[in-house]
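I am still getting used to backbone structure tokens and would like to learn alongside you. Label the sequence line and the structure token line clearly, so we can match residues to local backbone shapes. Go ahead whenever you are ready, and we will take it from there:
>
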Amino acid sequence: MGLFLLNRKCLLLIVLTFSLVACSDNYNEEFITSASTLNKSKALAQQLENLNLVTLSYLKEEIFIVNNIIINDKKKTYGIAPEGGFYESYYIQSEKNAYENWDTITNNFIPSTIVKREDVLELLSAMKAIGITDIYHNRTNEIFTLQWGSSVMNGYQGLIFGDKSRLGDEYKASRFDDFKEVNKDTFYFAVR
């Protein structure tokens, strides 16, 4: 009887786990390319440019990357963002240096900017509201890349805004599992 109850509990746990996975946020092409999401995404890209930022990434509630700096806002620490790697390496880097005021961090941004903390948090909140995890502005080609997710298992999807004639090699369709122009100078991509 005890083994039977244990097996039922394990089965229930498995069913609940799969149910939670099935109910988790899943941004698909239809959502990402909808008129509403496109408009919000373009506004976020414009806001990034207005703040003189190149990169903004949301890792989790209190950890985010602004340009080249990874910040743990809760612990008031920061470090240089690693170039790739697992989340753990990002979390470790985010705790390398303590700061007392936001100016300490902005002095380390490359390129430099005097963006206010409140403006960054507002932009991160707007990104999170529609599921964007990363925004990147390629100033050379005047291209914006917005990404939903970052998972080895699930891949990621996103949008690219910019003049088709200025898309560099990193934006070639052959580098993606799915790549299409959804509007003039607006492209959807997916990596699975």
